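Budget justification note: compute hours in this period were largely spent on complex prediction jobs such as the one shown. Inputs:
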Amino acid sequence: MRFLPYILKHLRRNWVRTGSTILGMAVCIFLFCTLRTVLKAMDDARELGNVTRLVTRHSVSLVYNLPLSYEGQIAQVPGVKRVAISSWFGGSLPAKKESQDKSKEGQPDFSNFFTNLAVEDEPYFAMHPEFSVPPGEMQAFREDLRGCIIGRGLARQYGWKVGDNFFLESFIPPYRRREGPFEFVVRGIFDADKVREPAADDRVMYFHYKYLYESTGRRVGAGLYVVELEDPKQAATVARAIDARFENSEAETKSETEAAFRADFIAMIGNLALLLNSIGLAVIFTILLVTANTMSMAVRERRTEIAVLKTLGFSSRQVMGLILAEALTIGVLGGGLGLALSVAIIRGMTKVPGVSGFINGFPNFGLHWGVSSQGLGIALFLGLAAGFMPALVAYRSRITEMLRQV
Amino acid sequence: MSAEAVRQPAAAPIVDVRNVRKVYRRDAEQITVLDGINLQVPPGEFVALMGPSGSGKTTLLNLIAGIDRPTSGEVVVAGTDVGRLSESELARWRSHNVGFIFQFYNLIPVLTAQENVELPLLLTSLSKKERRERALTALKVVGLADRAGHYPRQLSGGQEQRVAIARAFVADPGVLVADEPTGDLDAKSAEEILALMESLNRDFGKTIVMVTHDPRAAERAHTQKHLEKGVLKA
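Corresponding output:
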């Protein structure tokens, strides 16, 4: 500790260089932590899906709907308790009329995007006990075709309460209609029990599939079917039986557990894990070179000082320790700053319009201590690795040679 | 028997250089910088090493200071054969026994005068307060207590050298070695530095070995030794 003021003074010597190195390190750690957080959220999403429910979708792509006739056939498969249609509406709030950009007036405002699903209310909510809705509100919802039920988080986000109405416009062509956006009335607000179901999201809106079906001229099918199982152990058997039933039909199905469905959904983005990991590694390697360069320059500039320290009686090991400590300090400061940035950005992401809808789909999205520790560990490693060679040079250098080169 | 010969047996030399050779190798070429040097410096002596450039003065000084090793021969300083010490032992030995004064002061620019003087004390077990007090005392001795908080860039050359001298003796070493301490100073500052070194020798009993080109500086020493082509002349 007695050498700390000495180390800090040296770091302040060329504060622009030190500052930019620390900033570079911070950006590196920030990127690492943020990317790892996204990857972890995706991994969690894969693991946290409910095993008592299956999802049956079109085998080719989620883009294609399934025929409505499948519902009854799926219900007849042994081991199936309930079936419910669930279609992803993809609706956004229309731009406000007071918008300065008149050309966009009335167009969907995708910055206000959130998850909205058209469902068959009775079977859907029966098989999702993690959503609790006051019975009176549920009754009011069922009695109103334009009614919807929204999560507590969504209600908080938009300040909506029971009785409020709003409009949504889908970006999916079959779900758009000539008369304009769909009007909805908030009839109930549900709470999500995350203890019972960690993947439960309270920033979702549910409305009647019947409303979508009738408003679009009865031409749309089912986005997917959510299937409740009699026995979770029979998940694989039931999934195979459902898919076998529609084999060689015009619309073959793919049935899987909710967890697997989430994994497939995320995989549609591409090999995101590989992409994000590659970016992270590239950034870490770049910062290693930048920091190593900074430390090398700092040591080269201080050859005389190193010689003086050794002349005064500092051992080679102590001089090496001072340089490593300096590099480590850059790592600690950069890592700390990067973590702070990451915390701020990750918290901010959940509030940014457009991004929050995507983020909130992940359960427990946030910077975990494991990721933070990894980030800080990388910062320390980068500091040490960057300082090692210059420190070794200082360790090996002879006083007379260093003084002669002045 | 001369007076000097009588005095010698009474005080064993604090610096005892015995038949020292120093050879540098540059590719296949061997350059003999010091050849069979013998030098004994009694405690409390002030010796000036003189000679033309390339005569080996600084090399001899480096050997005495324990920052270089002889190719052959022995360098015994303060009772220790420095050639036999390991690198870490030598570093520890230097911190206790030798203070080095450079021609270009070599103060650490990011540290204040007081912090520069305090540097050698970081290697001791002294507390922060004790280190500060000692550094201030050393600065008082060199007449720069009022400049304790100044950085090297805020000091004149002479003042910087005085801070460097304070740094050299703050850990109370027995021997001070100075490599052209006035070589980068104007006449007035050089005079002040020499007076200070005389005072350290006279009042504090420090043994001083000083390399210099300047005959006026050498005159301040008790003894003058001349090196020519790596050989000590009488």
